[in-house]
Amino acid sequence: MGVCGEAGGDPLLALVLVGLGVQSLSMAPSKVPMVRFALSLHSLAECQGVAATALAARTAREAMQAVQGVVHDDLRALV
């Protein structure tokens, strides 16, 4: 399964999508370095944990805040 559009270019959302089983992310070329960096910091198991964190939230805003709280510190500093 793949995702195309701006969603795949968001580094935090990319972690969630990969954790949900998405295998292909399409994005603007300018977004590739940051998404690559985000993914390089997290294993598949960690992405699955990030996805579970997002799914447990009641609202989209809470999901984003929760995801920001569990990602690698180096990524959190950039987003």
TrEMBL record:
GO terms for molecular function: transferase activity, transferring phosphorus-containing groups. This is PEP-utilising enzyme C-terminal domain-containing protein. It comes from the Bacteria. SUPFAM superfamilies: Phosphoenolpyruvate/pyruvate domain (SSF51621). Residues 2-39 form the PEP-utilising enzyme C-terminal domain. Pfam families: PEP-utilizers_C.
